[in-house]
Amino acid sequence: MPVADTSQLVSGVAERYASSLFELALEEKAVPSVTADLDRFQAMLDESDDLKRFISSPVFSAEDQMKTIVAISEKAGISGFVANFLKVVARNRRLFALPGMIKAFRIIAAKQRGEVSAEVTSAHALDTAQETELKAALKSVTGKDVVVNVTVDPSILGGLIVKIGSRQIDTSLRTKLSTLKLALKEVG
User: Fold this and answer.
1) Distance between CA 98 and CA 92 in Å, rounded?
2) Which of 116, 126, 114 is nearest to 160 (CA)?
3) Paired strand residues for 150
4) Of the candidates 114, 112, 99, which has an alpha carbon nearest to the alpha carbon of residue 149?
5) Nearest one of 124, 58, 70 to 95, comparing CA atoms
6) Contact call for residues 44 and 82 (beta carbons, < 8 A)
7) CB 169 within 8 A of CB 121
8) Domains of the chain: which residue ranges?
9) DSSP readout, 149-163?
10) Helix or strand or coil: residue 143?
11) pTM value?
12) For each of the chain's 188 residues, which pLDDT tens digit applies?
């Protein structure tokens, strides 16, 4: 199976699971608490390379994944819908798609609130003033409130990469240097 087909499969799986979780949370008027629990789990993923390897590894059995996810959920204080959701995902051997599910849930929740979600990659963490300024600039472009999810990637060297829907703005220093390098090769 080509790589592109695999990413579409993950995306489709993630969107279906996220959509189901959102509908349930909306029915029970629990979208804010579910969002908070998912954010807590995402923070744990961001901080732990071991957890990232665990959810993406096909080596562990569904039973091992289930036991581990239950233990992690309890330790993090994640309960209710999200704890049950994580169990279902583990039982169905879909933990590999969990980051995509969390991202898809955020997008669905933002749309429901009339907001637009932006994925921002920065070389360093943004302070509150920078994030506020970025949100204001993106609001002026989109005409809607913008929820910003910032990922720090020092390899971009400087600048930002902003993705809103299918649009991407890449002002990273890495891209500018690559473009300059290519231009210099063409001249010489």
Assistant:
1) 12
2) 126
3) 120
4) 99
5) 58
6) no
7) no
8) 3-109, 115-187
9) EEEE-GGG-SSEEEE
10) coil
11) 0.70
12) 333 333 444 578 899 999 999 999 999 999 999 999 999 999 899 889 999 999 998 898 889 999 999 999 998 899 888 999 999 999 999 999 999 999 899 889 988 988 888 899 999 999 999 999 999 999 998 899 998 888 889 999 999 999 998 899 999 999 999 999 988 888 76
Separation between Cα atoms, residue 35 and residue 45, nearest integer Å: 15
Residues composing the chain: 188
CATH class belonging to 115-187: alpha beta
Which residues fall within 8 angstroms of residue 186, CB to CB, at 6 or more apart? Answer: none
| Burial (Cβ within 10 Å: 0-12, 13-18, ≥19) of residue 25 | buried
Distance separating alpha carbons of residues 14 and 96, to the nearest angstrom: 10
Give the C-alpha separation, 79 to 60, whole Å: 23
DSSP state of 188: -
Coil, helix or strand for 137?
A: helix
182, two tokens: 């290519």
* Longest distance between any two alpha carbons in the chain, whole Å: 64
Pick the CATH number of 3-109 from 1.20.120.80, 3.90.1640.10, 1.20.1560.10, 1.10.520.20: 1.10.520.20
- Asked if 39 contacts 1 with a C-beta cutoff of 8 angstroms, the reply is no
Please give the structure tokens belonging to residue 99. Answer: 């980051």
